């Protein structure tokens, strides 16, 4: 891609994000001072490279997933929020009763997109004991963890008392991780492992209603995928601390802006969810800056 083609692509994506409509070649020619013939030539070249597509023969062009991805990656590293805004956020965060809940609300307010915050300890607490009790429709597992923490989990497994006793004996701690499952206890150990993994994570979410303001929300499939991602919170892996990622179209029709961070013994990730036609520059700036404010870092 030449420098001029890059300028053409970026202008077209900017226009499409703002107007929500296919962009005609005349707008590109005017915006970059090109002749109409040269603008059409470069647009055709970008279309052949897979960055643009033309919905209708007489319409302008729109970015493809590849075009959005190239555009969004060109905005890295993100620009931080203005220093005055950061100072106000720092003061507000210091006085917040629940800083994490406050953080996602601010992320929604500044970006206009649904926000997710996931936190996970760098090291899971040791498992000291497991008590298993039969229930009419499953098994109650009481997990005793170091530090005095106790977690109760209802497992969808109906097992005889003798099997539960064998499992308790195999799970006498302290244990850094669950041992290999004895024969016949594979399903029980798998459920316990999942319960332990999910039990240490903290999740905060806010702003689902913001998605309803997007034109894409008229598509039931788009809404279904967005709500599922919002509720589930994504995969177990977190973005590494200090890194900002853009994930375009990995979930059909959706884009994610993610900032990873570390605060004390906790790893975290702030995610903004939007359509492919996301305001990437704003979202990147918000996610990056809020992760720095939350961890007490200063913009370079």
From TrEMBL:
Entry protein name: Heat-inducible transcription repressor HrcA
Keyword terms, alphabetized: Repressor, Stress response, Transcription, Transcription regulation
Residues of the LexA repressor DNA-binding domain: 1-53
Which residue windows are transmembrane per the record? none
Per the UniProt entry, what are the Gene Ontology biological process annotations, in alphabetical order? negative regulation of DNA-templated transcription; proteolysis
Residue ranges occupied by any Heat-inducible transcription repressor HrcA C-terminal domain in the UniProt entry: 109-282
Family membership noted in the UniProt record: Belongs to the HrcA family.
> Under the GO molecular function aspect, what terms does this record hold?
DNA binding; serine-type endopeptidase activity
């Amino acid at each position: 891609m030449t420098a001029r083609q890059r300028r053409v692509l970026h202008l077209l994506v900017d226009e499409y994000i703002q107007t929500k409509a296919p962009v005609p070649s005349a707008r590109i020619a005017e915006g970059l001072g090109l002749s109409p013939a040269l603008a059409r030539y470069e647009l055709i070249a970008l279309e052949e490279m897979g960055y643009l597509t033309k919905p209708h023969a007489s319409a302008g062009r729109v970015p493809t997933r590849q075009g959005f991805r190239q555009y969004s990656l060109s905005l890295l590293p993100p620009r931080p929020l203005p220093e005055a805004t950061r100072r106000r956020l720092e003061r507000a965060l210091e006085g917040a009763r629940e800083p994490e809940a406050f953080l996602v609300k601010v992320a929604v307010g500044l970006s206009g997109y649904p926000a997710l915050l996931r936190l996970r300890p760098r090291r899971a607490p040791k498992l000291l004991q497991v008590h298993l009790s039969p229930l009419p429709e499953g098994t109650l597992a009481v997990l005793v963890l170091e530090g005095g923490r106790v977690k109760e989990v209802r497992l969808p497994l109906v097992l005889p008392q003798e099997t539960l006793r064998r499992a308790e004996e195999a799970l006498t701690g302290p244990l850094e991780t669950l041992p290999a499952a004895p024969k016949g206890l594979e399903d029980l150990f798998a459920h316990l492992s999942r319960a332990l993994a999910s039990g240490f994570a903290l999740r905060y979410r806010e702003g689902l209603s913001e998605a309803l303001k997007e034109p894409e929300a008229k598509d039931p499939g788009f809404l279904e995928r967005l709500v599922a991602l919002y509720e589930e919170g994504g995969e177990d892996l977190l973005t590494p601390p200090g890194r900002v990622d853009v994930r375009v179209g990995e979930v059909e029709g959706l884009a994610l802006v993610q900032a990873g961070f570390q605060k004390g013994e906790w790893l975290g990730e702030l995610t903004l969810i939007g359509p492919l036609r996301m305001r990437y520059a704003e979202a990147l700036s918000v996610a990056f800056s809020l992760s720095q404010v939350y961890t007490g870092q200063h913009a370079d």
